[in-house]
Design brief:
alpha/beta; seven-stranded parallel beta sheet; globular
């Protein structure tokens, strides 16, 4: 007989959530704590914010501040984790950044910074934690969840060129990493968030009612939406989902034009 509770349980597992001190990362970390993780390490640059979030989420949430935008910072995180753990069950590559500027003025810095953190960091952090992930992948698969964006699946009207490119690249990188790591019993998948309130998505944070009008389900996402999707992928329930990036977006990517309140020509209904 199926044990439904165990299907979605993360009891006893060890997780790392990058960018876990606020926004979507915090939502995922909170869900993992609630699902029974023994330890959920959260990392971000601002130590005080990381410490405060860990305190708020409880004893199972462990602060591990650091800057993973560079290879030195990535290695430092991997070294510190190796001192504390013999295996890593779940890695959530969530840390990210955006940059907005017009096409004519978009700077090289705005390209390199975004591509480095949004694409390069998930790859090299997973590489440096590969040994710990393999060590944990015995009784159940270890999991890597890359947090992309619906902007990697569709256009938005903003001048965030490198952000679009980076998130689309991460969707495809997720497929390639999945094909490689599945042989080590490491399942790689992804999440593409839609409108969730965060420092990066200030429109959803500050004008949620207005943003909700353009979403088929007519609301912005909340902690339960994001935590539910992440727990599904991280738990036994998601063991057979390999290389797929799951939109958690209220239907923005796949909802029909009529559901969005416009006809196929973009006219209001």
């Amino acid at each position: 007989m199926m044990d439904f509770a165990k299907l979605f349980s993360l009891e006893g597992r060890v997780a790392v959530v990058t960018g876990g001190s606020r926004g979507i990362g915090r939502m995922i970390a909170e869900g993992f704590v609630a699902a029974g993780c023994a330890r959920v390490y959260i990392t971000a640059r601002k130590a005080a914010v990381v410490e405060q979030t860990a305190h708020e989420l409880g004893e199972a949430c462990v602060p591990l501040p650091g800057d993973i935008s560079t290879l030195d910072g990535i290695q430092a995180l991997a070294d510190e984790l190796a001192k504390r753990e013999t295996g890593l069950d779940i890695l959530v590559n969530n840390a990210g950044v955006a940059w907005g500027a017009t096409f004519e003025t978009f700077p090289e810095q705005g390209w390199d910074k975004v591509m480095d953190l949004n694409v390069k960091t998930p790859f090299f952090l997973t590489q440096r934690l590969h040994g710990l992930l393999k060590a944990a992948a015995t009784d159940h698969p270890a999991k890597v969840i890359n947090v992309s964006s619906i902007d990697g699946m569709k256009n938005n009207p903003w001048d965030t060129y490198s952000y679009h490119a980076s998130k689309a690249a991460l969707v495809h990188l997720t497929r390639r990493m999945a094909a490689e790591l599945v042989k080590d019993n490491i399942v790689v998948s992804g999440i593409a968030p839609g409108a969730f309130p965060s420092e990066m998505n200030k429109a959803a944070k500050n004008a949620g009612d207005l943003v909700a009008k353009g979403i088929p389900v007519k609301r912005i996402g909340d902690t339960l939406d994001m935590a539910g999707g992440a727990i599904f992928l991280a738990s036994r329930a998601g063991d057979y989902v390999v290389g797929t990036t799951l939109p958690i977006d209220g239907g923005i990517v796949n909802g029909s034009m009529r559901e969005r309140g416009v006809d196929p020509l973009g006219n209001a209904l």
